[in-house]
Structure formats: C-alpha cells, structure tokens
C-alpha cells in the first residue's frame, strides 16, 4: 500500500489514525507539526497526507498549499480533517488545494475509504 503521512498536533489522534492505517496496509509516517512534516517531505514523497487543520504556529491550510505548490509533492493527495467543516472550511480547503475534507471526530474506516478513493487503490478487507 502507498505511503501516507498523518499530521496532527494531538499525539493520541495522530497515533490512533496511524495505527489504523498501518493495520489497513498503508505504509505510515507521522508528524506533530510543520517542522516535522517538512523534514519528512525532504526525505520522502508520500502518496497522501492526512492533514489536521488546527495546529499551533503553522496551520494545515498553509502546509497543504506548500505541498501543492512544490513540484515534487504536488501530486500528493491531501485529505484534510477538521472539527470545523462549515462552508467557510470547504472554501478554504479548495483554496489550499486539498483533495478531500472529513469532519472530526471521524471513523478511521471512513479515512481508509477516502484515502483509497483518492489514491485509486483497493479498499483493504478488515
């Protein structure tokens, strides 16, 4: 399965999603903030990033724009997850270049389904 980076400043959320994705067959790396994500992106080109929006210092919208503006990572699919997904958030997701948006809290299986849709790969049987 493809490489996915889970970005969330809350360690329990980040590790919970990462573990579920690993169990689903994804190769997973994690980042707790912008500097960790940027360091990972200097080493690897993931197929997808599961991006929290509300993080300290640098928000997920800024990081999504950076991914989409970089020649090496612009094909990386970005699935944004947020507790606030009103109409303004949908517009912000589009403007940042996000490929999909899910509301928190979300069922990890829904994340797997959405990632496999974005990456056009088979949904794993769990």
Can you offer a commentary on this structure?
The structure is a single chain. By secondary structure, this protein is an alpha/beta fold. It has one domain: 3-Layer(aba) Sandwich (Rossmann fold), CATH 3.40.50.2300. 44% of the residues lie in helices and 20% in strands. The protein has 5 helices and 5 strands. A 5-stranded parallel sheet has the order 2-1-3-4-5, sandwiched between helices. Strand 4 (77-82), helix 4 (87-96) and strand 5 form a beta-alpha-beta unit. The chain is globular. The two termini are 14 Å apart.
Binned strand content: 15-25%
CATH level-3 fold name: Rossmann fold
Span between N and C termini?
A: 14 Å
Helical fraction equals 40-55%
Could you write a compact summary of the structure shown?
With 126 residues, the protein is an alpha/beta fold. The protein is 44% helix and 20% strand.
Please write out the topology.
Elements: E1 3-7, H1 11-23, E2 27-31, H2 34-43, E3 48-52, H3 60-69, E4 77-82, H4 87-96, E5 100-103, H5 108-119
Parallel strand pairs: 1-2, 1-3, 3-4, 4-5
What keyword list fits this structure?
Rossmann fold, 5 strands, 20% strand, 5-stranded parallel sheet, 126 residues, alpha/beta
């Amino acid at each position: 399965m493809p490489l996915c980076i889970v970005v969330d400043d809350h360690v329990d959320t980040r590790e919970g999603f990462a573990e579920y994705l690993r169990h689903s067959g994804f190769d997973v790396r994690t980042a707790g903030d912008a500097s960790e994500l940027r360091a990972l992106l200097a080493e690897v080109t993931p197929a997808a990033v599961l991006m929290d929006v509300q993080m300290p210092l640098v928000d997920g919208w800024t990081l999504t724009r950076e991914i989409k503006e970089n020649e090496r990572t612009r094909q990386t699919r970005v699935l944004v997850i947020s507790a606030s997904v009103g109409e303004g958030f949908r517009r912000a997701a589009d403007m940042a270049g996000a490929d999909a948006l899910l509301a928190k809290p979300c069922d990890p299986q829904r994340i797997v389904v959405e990632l496999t849709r974005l990456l056009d790969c088979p949904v794993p049987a769990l």
